[in-house]
Amino acid sequence: MIDKLKKTIAKAIKDQGIENPIVNIEHPEDNTFGDFSSNVSLIYSKQLKVNSKELAEKIIVELKKDFENEVKSIEIAGPGFINIKMKEDYFYKAIIDINNLGADVGKISIDANKKIMVEFTDPNPFKIFHIGHLMANTIGESLSRVVEFSNAKVIRACYQGDVGLHVAKTMWAILKNKANFSNENLPLNDRIKFLGDMYVIGTEKYEIDIEAKKEITDINKKIFEKSDAEINIYYKKGRDWSLEYFDTIYKKLGTKFDEFYFESEVSESGAKIVKELLKKGVFENSEGAIIFPGEKYGEHTRVFINSQNLPTYEAKEIGLTMRKFEQFPDLAESIVVTANEQNAYFKVVIAALNIIDSNIAKKVKHLSHGLLRPASGKMSSRKGNVVSADIFLEEFESLVDEKLKDRNFTKDEHEEIRQMIAIAALKYTVLRQAIGGDIIYDPQKAISFEGDSGPYLQYSTVRANAVLIKAKEAGITEAFVNEGQDVGLFEKLLIRFPEVVERSRLDYAPHHIVTYLTNLSSEFNSYYANNKIINADDPLSPYRVLLTKVFVQIMKNGLWILGIKVPNRM
């Protein structure tokens, strides 16, 4: 309906002399003002040198022509806002259509026949998988699902730094502590803890010990060249342990990657591209290194190959991007999710890509997020006080245990439900606000079954599903009955789900879905409190069951997009 309204309004504006008008239509915050609202007459009245109310009246004439059967009333508010109220039949038809869609409700087609890659999480072997990686995973997975709901073929990708100074620091410490090197018989978590401890030791020595720094720099080169047999053995074991550990976390979070890329695989190709373009003047020599002179292109200068002749992150990123598009030539878009710390770095990389291949550069979309921070402040993986993913999730799970302790669950049920609720708490906390800002989390609020939380959305869905089970037991089947039933905000919110999915896709913003589901759950719970849904003597009971069924399906689909599972009971 929004698209249809936009077309009519745009045509009306064009008829007044504006070539390509941009029309915005919103839902008024106050439901009594109407179902749709537009300020288009205010925007173009100055340009047309006419009174905004007079322009609004001309637009309304066209709207009434095109929407005679759907529109109840159109009014001008204030200096020229156009408020549109729809007839009840419009909402009834939409509810029936949504119910008929079943599990497909909310699916749109704006990405039909497109292949889109989403790269996210990107943990580094030999370093801890921390809550920053949880944040990146949550955002990337949800974006992947938004794109899937838009009818694209999605390729989930993970790019991991398996070479570089962080690996050399860890390897230096391992070589100094060979006697304590963990073996295959120890639990995986113990082996991962050992690697983390070695990284901290190596990092500290690199910063305070000149000799150690020199040795680590030498090890870094040997790892890149694979020229030391002993280092290669320890390196392979540590890398394998890290990847095995990462897989356990991906499984818990509900992510299955289609492609894994590694720095060690794209370093050479990235360096080769940089060196070839050095001859063409795109890159320049500077004090033994090769740089990209970003100032020439509105950015800053960065090193792409260092004085040791090793490619930096920037060169590797060039290699990675070209690898993606070589592997998938029909890729329509490559969405990359990273932390805000990489913003400046990515601007320069994309500036360089624009010169290398502008067609590829325009298909790269970089999205960055802030930090998920505890009250203690910013994390630092170099200092050893980083909050690991395991510890973070265990904190949430232990709080959930307190809420579930008096429930009559079997041990297996309890374990499954506590994990679902903890993951929901995490994902809602991350996705509830626009991507980009830092988030300071409150664990107690995050696991609450009431209000602004993931578990609240789960609980609302479980409650509604229980109503459907009772309706079936009572022999009440959902049906459309509208005798004497006014259309309320609950029905109006239900039919907005597809447009919320579309807005989330166009804005790369899952938080729109979080806000929508939270408002919808609140409205359902109000509806539940004010209406007896199951009542064999009430002719409206089948209609209320129908609304409940549509609500459950929308919640399940919306929560799936957020990466949140719904328990059978809570």
Overall description:
The protein is α/β, with parallel strands linked by helices. The chain has 3 domains: 2-86, Arginyl tRNA synthetase N-terminal domain (Gyrase A, domain 2, 2-Layer Sandwich), CATH 3.30.1360; 120-263 and 328-348 and 356-373, Rossmann fold; 389-562, Isoleucyl-tRNA Synthetase, Domain 1, CATH 1.10.730. The protein has helices at residues 2-15, 40-48, 52-66, 88-101, 131-149, 165-176, 188-208, 210-225, 229-253, 263-279, 313-327, 343-356, 358-361, 389-404, 411-431, 443-446, 454-473, 489-494, 497-507, 511-530, 541-562; strands at 36-38, 71-77, 81-86, 115-119, 153-160, 259-262, 284-286, 289-292, 302-305, 331-339, 364-369, 372-373, 439-440. Helix 5 links the parallel strand 4 (115-119) and strand 5 (153-160). Helix 7 packs across helix 8, helix 10 (263-279) crosses helix 11 and helix 20 packs antiparallel against helix 21. The longest helix has 25 residues, at 229-253. It is flat.
